[in-house]
């Protein structure tokens, strides 16, 4: 629903025509949504309020008397010096500054009562959202490579519009010499209206389109703002009829909003349409508004002029989109958060996501390299990001293709298990036919006993949970077990780096845990571990023990005694049960001497029950001792393995020391020889000097 906003604006010397005269133009430009059913929020007959469309040009909504007064925002352009008067008004003085670190960039100070509060930005596309929201919205991406994945998703979604590649590269900013990121594809591009929808918050039509990944309409904003403070987008589109060729430029700049102290998100955009043999400006409101948007883009973008901006379309041919992210975020040390120098064909992360030990292990264990490197390497992460990649689609990272990789190829002893969640129409409406084929196995490097495990869970072809660890065993149990599945019946979170915590996800997690335990217990001896008892067999054994224990309690013999001619049962110590029974035989009350009690059968039954009880206890004790023995054997084998590993390490260390000692001895011998040669040379030279001096004296 469109929100209704009022704004008080002081008078100026440029009154607009009356509202009745402006109404047709406002309607033609979608300024008033005729289908809106909300209230007009009019306080009295002299009050008027207009709905502010999301990313529609926000006209000043004022309390007015004829003629309608309005204050327009002055253009912010490099061609206007500070305090220069433009169209009878003073230009805005940009205030540049602020933190270059992403996690601290949300400190956005607004001076109360300043000029920014009076700026209405007439003719610029914007939403009534404070610029701080751009930063807080982007904090959903805790991991920077997740932001790259969002942009790759957008390009892959364009396959249905003819996209055959997405290019990720690093460019130089000619204005200040800094680095910029480029994401480009040759998809269908965006019309001017779609460009505005792209820049809006929460708008998406992809959720209604099959085989597309995007669904929340928030990925472009969060991902670009997570990687850098500013982004400029160039898009060329053929139109729905394939003939209406347009191209658009839009800029979402946190630096611009902070520098000019905006209190709402202003998004300058300009559009062109192709007529005849040339490109013409598309004037949505007025020539002055179009020029103001261009001037703002030129000042706050990496480009010096309109000509430089238009040169970017030369890379797109007939259609496509080119996204350039600049003013990249710094880390706590003041250098770029992204590592663009270590590998010229990769984009990597610094800090906690980078583990030098894992990088070295990836060289030794190539089948585990994706597990060890995906946290810091975009090339590694992008290679497993999609379960299936169209054969004609390429991901090009800094000049080299990213080779698509299937984790299944890293497995051995793999098996496929079909999991079908229990259907509940209240929890999973419309998901009655959902199943997940889980491929589980050992990573081929599992024989080295490295701690690699987890399930790669995909949703609609997109990796959501990489190497999800569902079993956190205290010891070595579970090591080496990896799995792959596509679970379309669970909903991903907004950052697509996890799933919403629901009952369905909890059930899936429990089932994957049981799968991993069963697979490990059945096959762990194949990779050098001691055999384990299967979890399902342990559960059956536990039930059997409880059942046996309950039967023994129920069948425990009862002792009988007679008091006053009445036969009663009494619990007696087991050692006196037979004696008590024999004693009962001779108990005959005086008043009931005619009663004869025959307990021969009871004697036999009691004896049998007693023997069974003793045998059961002995078997139980024997079973416990066997289990203790097995546990000790397992511990002994593990300790022996540890000793063997330590022995190997010791041998390797001794070899290294011996090799080092050999190199040192060789070096020492070489130095001794050099020293001896030098000494000989010195003696020879001294002798020669002496002879020369002697000859001079003679």
From TrEMBL:
Residues 543-557 have a biased composition (Basic residues). GO terms for cellular component: nucleus. Its cofactor is Mn(2+). It is found in: Nucleus. Its main location: nucleus. Residues 533-542 have a biased composition (Basic and acidic residues). It holds the Pfam family HATPase_c_3. Keywords: ATP-binding, Chromatin regulator, Coiled coil, DNA damage, DNA repair, Endonuclease, Hydrolase, Nuclease, Nucleotide-binding, Nucleus, RNA-binding, RNA-mediated gene silencing. Residues 1-20, 531-567 are annotated as: Disordered. Signal peptide: none annotated. One of its GO terms (biological process) is chromatin organization. InterPro entries: MORC_ATPase, Morc_S5. GO terms for molecular function: ATP binding; ATP hydrolysis activity; endonuclease activity; RNA binding. Residues 615-677 form a coiled coil. Residues 376-520 form the Morc S5 domain. Belongs to the MORC ATPase protein family. This is Morc S5 domain-containing protein. The lineage of its organism: Eukaryota, Viridiplantae, Streptophyta, Embryophyta, Tracheophyta.
């Amino acid at each position: 629903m469109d929100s209704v906003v009022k704004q008080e604006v002081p008078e100026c010397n440029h009154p607009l025509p009356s509202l009745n005269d402006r109404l047709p133009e406002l309607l033609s430009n979608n300024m008033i949504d005729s289908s809106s059913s909300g209230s007009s929020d009019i306080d009295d007959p002299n009050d008027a309020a207009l709905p502010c469309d999301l990313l529609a040009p926000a006209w000043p909504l004022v309390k007015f008397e004829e003629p309608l007064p309005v204050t327009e925002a002055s253009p912010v352009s490099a061609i206007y010096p500070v305090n220069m008067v433009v169209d009878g008004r003073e230009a805005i003085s940009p205030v540049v500054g602020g933190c270059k670190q992403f996690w601290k960039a949300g400190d956005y100070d607004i001076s109360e009562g300043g000029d920014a509060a009076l700026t209405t930005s007439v003719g610029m596309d914007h939403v009534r959202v404070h610029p701080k929201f751009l930063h807080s919205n982007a904090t959903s991406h805790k991991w920077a490579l997740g932001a790259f994945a969002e942009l790759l998703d957008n390009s892959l979604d364009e396959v249905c519009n003819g996209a055959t590649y997405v290019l990720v590269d690093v460019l130089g900013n000619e204005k200040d010499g800094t680095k910029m990121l480029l994401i480009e594809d040759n998809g269908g591009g965006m019309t001017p209206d779609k460009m505005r929808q792209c820049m809006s918050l929460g708008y998406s039509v992809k959720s209604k389109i099959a085989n597309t990944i995007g669904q929340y309409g928030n990925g472009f904003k969060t991902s670009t703002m997570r990687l850098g403070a500013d982004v400029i987008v160039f898009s060329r589109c053929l139109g729905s009829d394939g003939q209406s060729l347009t191209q658009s430029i839009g800029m979402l700049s946190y630096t611009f909003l902070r520098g000019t102290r905006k209190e709402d998100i202003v998004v300058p955009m300009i559009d062109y349409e192709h007529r005849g043999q040339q490109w013409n400006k598309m004037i949505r409101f007025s020539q002055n508004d179009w020029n103001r948007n261009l001037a703002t883009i030129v000042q706050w973008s990496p480009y010096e002029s309109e000509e430089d901006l238009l040169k970017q379309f030369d890379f797109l041919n007939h259609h496509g989109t080119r996204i350039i992210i600049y003013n990249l975020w710094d880390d706590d040390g003041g250098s770029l958060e992204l590592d663009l120098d270590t590998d010229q064909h990769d984009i990597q992360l610094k800090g906690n996501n980078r583990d030098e030990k894992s990088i070295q292990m990836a060289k030794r264990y190539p089948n585990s390299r994706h597990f060890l490197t995906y946290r810091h390497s975009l090339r590694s992460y992008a290679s497993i990001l999609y379960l299936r990649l169209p054969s004609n689609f390429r991901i090009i990272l800094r000049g080299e293709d990213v080779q698509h990789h299937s984790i299944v190829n890293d497995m051995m002893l793999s098996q496929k298990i079909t999991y079908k969640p229990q259907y509940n129409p209240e929890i999973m409406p419309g998901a009655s036919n959902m199943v997940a084929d889980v491929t589980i196995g050992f990573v081929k490097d599992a024989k080295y006993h490295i701690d690699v495990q987890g399930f790669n869970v995909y949703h609609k072809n997109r990796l959501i949970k990489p190497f999800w660890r569902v079993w956190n065993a205290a010891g070595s149990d579970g090591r080496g077990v990896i799995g792959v599945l596509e679970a379309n019946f669970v909903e991903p979170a907004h950052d697509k780096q996890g799933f919403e915590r629901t009952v369905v996800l909890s059930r899936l997690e429990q089932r994957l845990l049981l799968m991993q335990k069963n697979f490990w217990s059945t096959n762990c001896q194949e990779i050098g571990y001691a055999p384990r008892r299967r979890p399902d067999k342990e559960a059956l054994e536990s039930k059997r023990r409880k059942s046996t224990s309950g039967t023994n309690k129920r069948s425990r013999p009862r002792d009988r005694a007679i008091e006053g001619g009445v036969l009663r049962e009494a619990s007696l110590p087991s050692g006196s049960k037979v004696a008590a029974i024999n004693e009962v035989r001779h108990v005959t009350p005086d008043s009931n001497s005619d009663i004869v009690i025959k307990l021969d059968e009871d004697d036999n039954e009691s004896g049998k029950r007693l023997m069974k009880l003793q045998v059961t206890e002995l078997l139980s004790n024997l079973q416990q001792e066997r289990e203790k023995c097995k546990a000790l054997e397992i511990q002994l084998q593990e300790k022996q393995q540890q000793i063997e590993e330590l022995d190997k390490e010791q041998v390797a260390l001794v070899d290294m020391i011996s090799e080092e000692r050999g190199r040192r001895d060789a070096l020492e011998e070489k130095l001794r020889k050099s020293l001896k040669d030098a000494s000989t040379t010195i003696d020879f030279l001294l002798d020669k000097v002496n002879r020369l001096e002697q000859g001079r004296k003679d």
